[in-house]
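Priority: low. Protein: Helix-turn-helix transcriptional regulator. Input follows.
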Amino acid sequence: MRAKTLDQVTAGVERACRTVSGAVELERAVCASLREAVPFDAWCALTVDPGSVLPTGGWHREGLPLEYMNPMLEIEAGGQDALALSTMARSCRRAMTLTAATGGQPERSRHYREILVPAGMTREMRVLFGDNASVWGALVLFRGADAPDFADADAQLIGDATISVATAIRREMVLTEITADDTAAGPGLVLLDRDLHPTTMSSAAARWLTQVDDGIDPHRELPFCVLTLAHQAWSRPGPARTRIRSRTGRWLTLHAEQLAGADDQVSIIIEAARPVEIAALIADTYRLTSRERDVVGLIARGFARTEIARLLTVSAYTVDDHIKRVFGKLEVRSRAELTAKLFFDQHLPRIENEVPIGGTGWFLR
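Result:
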């Protein structure tokens, strides 16, 4: 078979990006186009939360046997194995082979030893759709033990040909959000007077407020948690913020602030918690300090202690102290367990319930 050029592969990928609907279906079409240039025996597709670089769904029917799914998820959620999505996300390469990631020693990889070898699929390449700022999806490609390994040229070809895929996946997620008709997904606004009576309320805010699981003040017809937040905004300078859980289990973020130039109005903005706030939700639950929250967020994205120290402008020993306290509060023993807590508590239940993904890369509910 005549080898396809980069232009030919890119044209097939971009055709899929223009014509296929749905993020997962788009990745399947891209995979089919890539397979014509770089053959493989099995594969799976993933959608990824850009806030934590953890999977939010995907396609696994043509991947490894199902008995390997749970142990593979456990290893992946730890974020420390070779070719972990979080590690790749911080590199400059969109596609990488397991051989390259391990310096030619794939046996160093836990998922190679425990998953790939028993499954008979010992050749692996991963492809990220995104960059080191945001990752929206990924492909995992496998070849059998009796097949030649993926070459570096294969990874370079696929990485160069799929530059446009991340934008297309995000577009499809936005369209999914619109199609789902989740009209309460956008932010809502409530304006309160000095006595905390509502003077203006958007339709989105009214819908959000019906989901708040709290008692209602009979005079103002607002949940008590909203009034408490408004009192905070009146009593101290600057914005006040809180997070609450709705009756459906969805996290909401409420912001309250006195309006600039007005001494008799406070605004309340209600919106769904964004993906980057998921680590902060767990931080709230376990009463982490502001600095400990920063550390949790960076750990979730796979940064090493020296990188965290540089980003936070503190010593590595200080980072160690923060990590020790975080582990104690969350009752975990390693960064892998912490990242797994994020995945198994926040992602997996939604994946199992087939909750659709919205334009932020996070679940719609």
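The chain is about 45% helix and 20% strand. The chain has a mean pLDDT of 84.
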